[in-house]
Amino acid sequence: PVTILLQLVDMFMYFVGIVSGLNLSKNIFLRFSPSLVFFTPLIISIIFYSFINILKSSVFVPLEKLRSLTIMYALLLLLTALTFVILESINSTMINMAIALGVGAFGSFLYAIFYLKTQFGFYLLKTNVTLFTLYSVLLVVGVNYFSNFNLSQKLLLFGVYLFSVKFLFRLNYLDLILGKFYAKLLKIAKI
Questions:
Q1: Most CB within 10 Å of its CB: which of 13, 91, 100, 170?
Q2: Which residue has the higher pLDDT, 139 or 106?
Q3: Whole-prediction pTM value?
């Protein structure tokens, strides 16, 4: 979707340049397309870091669990640094830091989930929401980084994804089409 958006911006700038008589062709797609590989790990890290931040302000600080909060942030820093060092020793590329941020945020979030479960018996995520999240992350990472799927294979994977979501959340396809999926997801997660 982002590549299509960048190509559309290039086409728009080209046509505006023709109409106005100015040279507005910036080749935005060619300039910025190498950076698209950073989006997925950075979005994953931002999502899990936002969960950590919400847990900090709504659970750890009000309950005065500052030691656990410090451990959670130290784990975030240590996992990020350790993952970065390991990835740099394997292959030195720019994406290593983005992946390390994602792994650090995910590991810290897992610590918070297990801490809440062991100390308070509180399940932060239900099983189907956890499976949905893990399956979504694995699908996005697998399609974007570990294989060269053509369009028909990506569409097939997306169909399998929708089919599995149907069983995880006991949905019918009309719910997916009408957008009721998110309402049911929030109801199941009790958010």
A1: 100
A2: 106
A3: 0.64
Give the separation between CA 15 and CA 66, rounded to whole angstroms.
57
Give me 46's structure tokens. 């931002």
105-116 pLDDT tens trace: 989 988 988 888
- What would the two tokens of residue 81 be? 């640094």
Structure tokens belonging to residue 45: 């890290």
Q: Which residues, other chains included, contact 79 with Cβ-Cβ below 8 Å and sequence gap of 6+?
A: 100, 103, 104, 107, 108
> Which H, E and C letters describe the chain, residue by residue?
CHHHHHHHHHHHHHHHHHHHCCCCCCCHHHHHHHHHHHHHHHHHHHHHHHHHHHHHHHHHCCCCCHHHHHHHHHHHHHHHHHHHHHHHHHCCCCHHHHHHHHHHHHHHHHHHHHHHHHHHCCCCCCHHHHHHHHHHHHHHHHHHHCCCCCHHHHHHHHHHHHHHHHHHCCCCHHHHHHCHHHHHHHHHHCC
Contact 130, 149 (CB under 8 A): no
Distance CA 39, CA 47 (A): 12
pLDDT in tens, 49-77: 888 888 888 888 887 888 888 999 999 99
